[in-house]
Amino acid sequence: MSEDPTDDAVADIVPDVAFRSPISQGRLHGALAHKLGVDILKGVYKSGETLPNEIESSSALEISRSAYREAIRILAAKGMVESRPKAGTRVTERSRWNILDPEVLRWMFETEPSNDFITGLFELRLITEPAAAALAAQRRDQSHLDIMDKALNLMASETLATEAGRKADLDFHNALLDATNNEALICLSSSIGAAVSWSTRFKQRHSALPRDPVPDHRAVYEAIRRQDPNDARWCMETLVRLALRDTQASMDGASLGAAPQL
Fold first, then answer.
1. Is the per-residue pLDDT at 11 higher than 70?
2. Checking phi first, is residue 254 left (phi over 0); if not, alpha (psi -120 to 50) or beta?
């Protein structure tokens, strides 16, 4: 029997997905927000549809009405639902969803994201990260280089198949964005980091990565170390394009040759 009486309730609310990050026990509203968010992204509840009402849902799930209301507030803050008096809680249009919210990105990768979504995410990375690498090459200091070098060594020793290796990958990308000294770009670090993290997990969910991406990261680092913005931009663009190819190849029915040209 579970020592925490909420354990079983959380397990009932949250489905067993392949690469879900741990959910804090006892945080039923977070668990329910996760469940409803994934269901919305899967199309169980479509845009314009009304979610089950507070009383019915609370009773069926054996949770408090306050926990249900808090879960709805979480989804509303992400633009996924809106509540109106007497009309209930309705799923909003997809265009209003904050898909760059790190939690929404995590939920998205717990479904089977579409080719369009994957492509769009990597298009965003291609727009931002090569330019960020060029700025980093011009503005970095030794502390940024030290963080990136340490991260590269950990990625090489731990590999991206481990949590430690993926954490090092995030440290690398965060240090690169921080080195731009551009507040707007730095604010994107959580979204870009989530995109990097969950796409990395996604593309090796069925089998190991087809190649070692560390040399691509090392090339970016070396260009930044040399303060060569043009080479840093080119190396980062290459890194992102290869990551897109790997991700596309991991999807059902996709092959290396079927990756879209960006």
1. no
2. beta
Which of residues 219 and 85 earns the better pLDDT score? Answer: 219
Nearest to 172 by CA among 200, 206, 149, 194: 149
Instruction: Give which of 102, 122, 75 is closest to 191, Cα–Cα.
Output: 102
Chain segment 94-135, per-residue pLDDT in tens: 999 999 999 999 999 888 888 899 999 999 999 999 999 999
C-alpha distances in Å from residue 22, one per residue of 16, 19, 25: 11, 9, 9
Token pair in block for residue 23: 């959910």
Between CA 245 and CA 171 the distance in angstroms is: 23
Q: Could you report the per-residue pLDDT of 138-194, keeping only the tens digit for each? A: 999 999 999 999 999 999 999 988 999 999 999 999 999 999 999 999 998 889 988
Complete DSSP assignment for the chain: --SSTHHHHHHHHS---TTPPP--TT-HHHHHHHHHHHHHHHTSS-TTPBPPPHHHHHHHHT--HHHHHHHHHHHHHTTSEEEETTTEEEEPPGGGS-TTSHHHHHHHHHS---HHHHHHHHHHHHHHHHHHHHHHHHH--HHHHHHHHHHHHHHHHH-TTSHHHHHHHHHHHHHHHHHTT-HHHHTTHHHHHHHHHHHHHHHTSSS--SS--HHHHHHHHHHHHTT-HHHHHHHHHHHHHHHHHHHHHHSTT--GGGPPP-
Radius of gyration of the chain (CA): 20
